[in-house]
Structure formats: structure tokens, C-alpha cells
Design brief:
By secondary structure, this protein is α+β, with helices and mostly antiparallel strands. The chain has six helices and nine strands; from the N terminus they run E-H-E-E-E-E-H-E-E-E-E-H-H-H-H. Strand 7 and strand 8 form a beta hairpin. Helix 3 runs antiparallel to helix 5. The relative contact order is 0.13.
């Protein structure tokens, strides 16, 4: 097995931003940067330490997931064959970080592993924060839908009977238009409170 030989490259401005989405790529590469895509396309193993965050679009208010580099302007490439000239030809590679006397500066595996660990730790923290946000949104949506049912259903519901059970029992006595609306709300509540969906969110962290 060839040993790892990691070298730092200077990345051209703009090449650390996320590349255009490509559904043909595996899930692990869906949020790669332009420099990562260019290097991998030419067969180079690249590592750009990064962190993830969520931003709300100022106009659509949609939550967007973004990825940013820890080290702005730099990435690491594994060159076990020391094929420096081939890498220099990759679009977005400016130069190597060099030692004053010995040429391109090689980084030991231990230092790269520290960066891998830091990225992994930040990723787990991001997933936990994302999970909490989704759980809060799910809870708010459930409360909103239950409030809509309270406005529609007959008064006098017994305390031990859930709102959804009450709706299912009373639904046949409703007018067709209201019945359709209640059925839609029940479907949304069932989807929001499904154990399988909650479990999937928890497994993400």
C-alpha cells in the first residue's frame, strides 16, 4: 500500500465555494467545492477541512445548508507518486506551500488526522443543532394543526381522547368540504408524529 504524502496547495479565489449540484455524484460528494471536484476528476485525493452551517435565504426564507473551509485559501492533496506537475495543471491550483530550502512542504499524517477529527467534531455539532431545529419546527407545526382541529370539531371533547381520535370519530358527521379539510390535517399530523421519521432524525446524530 502506498503511504500518504500530504501537501498543502494554495487555492485560487472562488474555487472553495460549493460546486454546482450534480445528481450523478454519490451522496458523499453532493456538497463538494469546485477545487475538490476538479482534483477528484483528475484522480487526486484532496482534503479541504470544512464546517457546515444553515442560513435562511433573505427573500424566500428557505433554510439553506452551506459548507465553508476552515482554512481559507488552502487545501491538502495526497501525492504518493509526487506528481506535482500534474497537480499544478488542475484548474484552481495556484501553487504549493513551500519550505524555503526543500521545495513543497509535506505534512505528516498525524497533522492531517487532527484536522479530520476537528471537521468530524464540528459536523456532529452541526447535525445536532439541525436536529433540534427540525424537532422544534415539527412541534410548532403539530400545535398549529391541533389548533385548526379545535376550531373545526364539536366542543366537549373528553380529556382522555386525543384530538386526532376525536376528529376520526366525528369526521363522518361533517360536511364534505370540512371532512376533506380535517382528513388533510390528520394526514399531516400523522406524518409529523410518525415514530419512524423521528428515529431517522435521531440516527443522523
Amino acid at each position: 500500500m502506498k503511504r500518504s504524502r500530504w501537501y498543502a496547495i494554495r487555492v485560487a479565489p472562488g474555487y472553495q465555494r460549493m460546486a454546482a449540484a450534480d445528481e450523478r455524484l454519490p451522496e458523499s460528494r453532493r456538497m463538494e467545492s469546485i477545487i475538490e471536484r476538479n482534483c477528484r476528476k483528475d484522480g487526486f485525493d484532496i482534503f479541504m477541512p470544512s464546517f457546515y452551517t444553515e442560513l435562511r435565504h433573505h427573500r424566500t426564507k428557505q433554510i439553506l445548508q452551506k459548507r465553508f473551509p476552515f482554512l481559507v485559501g488552502y487545501a491538502f492533496v495526497n501525492l504518493p507518486r509526487l506528481n506535482f506537475e500534474e497537480l499544478r495543471r488542475v484548474d484552481g491550483v495556484v501553487c504549493f506551500l513551500r519550505d524555503a530550502r526543500y521545495g513543497p512542504l509535506e505534512f505528516p499524517d498525524e497533522e492531517i488526522e487532527v484536522l479530520y477529527f476537528a471537521e468530524h467534531e464540528r459536523r456532529q455539532s452541526f447535525l445536532y443543532e439541525q436536529h433540534c431545529r427540525k424537532e422544534n419546527e415539527r412541534h410548532e407545526q403539530i400545535q398549529h394543526l391541533r389548533g385548526q382541529l379545535r376550531k373545526i370539531l364539536p366542543k366537549g371533547r373528553k380529556a382522555r381522547v386525543s384530538m386526532v381520535d376525536q376528529a376520526e370519530r366525528a369526521i363522518d358527521s361533517l360536511s364534505p368540504q370540512i371532512k376533506e379539510r380535517v382528513q388533510k390535517i390528520i394526514s399531516e399530523l400523522n406524518a409529523l408524529t410518525a415514530d419512524a421519521e423521528v428515529e431517522n432524525l435521531r440516527q443522523a446524530v
